[in-house]
Design a protein that fits this description.
Layout lengths: L5 H26 L6 E7 L4 E7 L10 E5 L12 E2 L4 E5 L6 E5 L5 E3 L7 E8 L3 E5 L3 E3 L2 E7 L6 E4 L5 E3 L4 E4 L3 E9 L2 E10 L23 H18 L4 H14 L52 E4 L4 E4 L4 H12 L21 E4 L2 H6 L7 E3 L8 E7 L3 E7 L8 E7 L9 E4 L1 H4 L10
Parallel strand pairs: 9-16
Antiparallel strand pairs: 1-2, 2-5, 3-4, 3-6, 6-7, 8-11, 10-14, 12-15, 13-14, 15-16, 17-18, 19-24, 20-21, 20-24, 21-22, 22-23
Helix pairs in contact: 2-3, 3-4
């Protein structure tokens, strides 16, 4: 055997020591120093659960990892309520606030998961309307509501599929430009809410006050599809303010007098449901408008009809042919019915039997009643008379005037119109006001003016 010299032994010992130190250092680091977790993925699911997956050195005997989350950015402490993880995963349910998440190893080293404090999502996005009907050159304001969790850029954006039909601005105001259908959308991040827009010439933009210069409705102007659409719009307008409320009845009056493009003629009735059962001749006690022959299916007993509004019909009280329409009580009862109040097909007088003046609290109309502030939009007005009289409904009010929706039989407007009456003199025309709070019970989204 060859002997090793002293120098060789020294070198060999140095190598052995080096290898020992190297082995001890790296094995200790690998097996005995607590590892640093490495984030693999962070996800947020539809149930708002944040799931964090990470890697650690599996062979390390001290590879326990603890998890902590909180909703403030204060530095966590070693003795806080940490949770031991399993399968290299941690999770928590995210709510509306901002969150901060941390991992801790067995050496009490704390690692912030920075991605968590910028996480979030839009959990819901809805709009105040899913379908709107807008007159050409008219506008309609919609609103968006949304909920978020965590931290998210909640910038709301509006856009239209076809800006030649309708546009929508940053405040949710839709403007109809030409006849047609399109969609507008509210968008936050990846969430989108849709609104169908019907831009139509079947209605007109409501004037600021009133427009009694409209033309009279011609016979046969509308077909079934157009009548159906107008009925949809009327129903939508009423639902917007609250069906079966004071506002609903007012809305029906405003729609027919302001938004419908034509004036409905006054027609001296040939009868009504509460007398001889005749329907649709000076009255139309049904939901919707009477514009197409398809509505004849609603008509029960007839005298000289059926004829839709605007079409010539013999009026027995007037002894002549007139375009069909509504008399005063026919208009008010139609308005009440469409608003959700089935008062019956009844008249306007102060007769012993049931009349429209029997609804609400009938009160002598005078200056003190006006000054009391008890009179409201939606109250009924009557000129009295046992065998007749005239009835109307207040459709608007400002400081000086009541704006009365009524069907008048005297020129220049033999039609359903809205007419202003001074608060100083209105009681010279209308002797009674029916205060309707106890009947309507709810005001709904009532406005003094349209």
């Amino acid at each position: 055997m060859k002997k090793i010299g002293i120098i060789g032994l020294v070198v060999l010992n140095i190598v052995i020591v080096y290898l020992s130190i190297y082995f001890l250092y790296y094995s200790y680091d690998k097996y005995y120093l607590a590892p640093t977790p490495t984030i693999n993925s962070i996800t947020l699911n539809d149930d708002n659960i944040v799931n964090i997956k990470f890697d650690v050195e599996e062979d390390n005997v001290r590879n326990k990892i603890y998890f902590l989350y909180k909703n403030d950015d204060s530095v966590p402490k070693i003795n806080d309520s940490w949770t031991l993880t399993s399968n290299n995963e941690a999770s928590f349910k995210m709510e509306k606030m901002q969150y901060y998440a941390y991992l801790k190893n067995e050496d009490d080293e704390i690692f912030e998961i920075e991605e968590v404090n910028t996480m979030g999502r839009v959990t819901s996005l809805t709009t105040s309307k899913q379908k709107v009907y807008v007159a050409i050159k008219g506008t309609y304001k919609v609103e968006a509501k949304y909920e978020t969790i965590g931290i998210v850029d909640d910038t709301l954006k509006w856009y239209s599929d076809d800006e030649s039909i309708a546009t929508i601005d940053e405040n949710g105001k839709i403007k109809a430009l030409k006849k047609g259908n399109t969609k507008v959308h509210a968008k936050i991040k990846d969430e989108i809410a849709d609104i169908d827009v019907v831009a139509t010439d079947l209605i007109v933009v409501r004037p600021k006050l009133y427009n009694n210069k409209k033309k009279y409705l011609p016979c046969g102007k509308y077909n079934k599809e157009e009548n159906d659409l107008l009925d949809e719009i009327l129903k939508d307008r009423i639902n917007d303010v609250g069906y079966k409320t004071r506002a609903a009845t007012v809305e029906a009056a405003r729609f027919l007098a302001l938004e419908f493009p034509y004036k409905i003629r006054y027609f001296s009735e040939n009868g009504r449901g509460s007398t001889n059962g005749v329907d649709g001749e000076g009255r139309y006690y049904h939901v919707g408008l009477y514009l197409d022959s398809s509505r004849y299916k609603n008509i029960g007993k007839k005298a000289n009809g059926p004829k839709t509004w605007g079409c010539s019909l013999y009026s027995r009280p007037s002894h002549g042919r007139r375009p069909n329409g509504l008399d005063c009580s026919g208009f008010v009862s139609w308005v009440m019915l469409n608003g959700g109040f089935d008062v019956g097909d009844i008249g306007a007088g102060l007769a012993p039997h049931l009349d429209l003046t029997d609804y609400g609290k009938r009160t002598n109309f005078n200056a003190s009643v006006v000054a009391s502030g008890k009179v409201k939009v939606g109250d009924l007005l009557s000129s009295g008379g046992v065998n007749g009289g005239h009835i109307a409904i207040i459709a608007g009010e400002d400081d000086n005037y009541y704006y009365v929706a009524e069907s008048l039989w005297t020129p220049p407007n033999v039609a359903v119109i809205i007419k202003p009456y001074s608060k100083k003199t209105i009681y010279n025309r209308y002797f009674y006001v029916m205060l309707m709070d106890s009947y309507y019970k709810q005001d709904g989204k009532l406005t003094k003016m349209w």
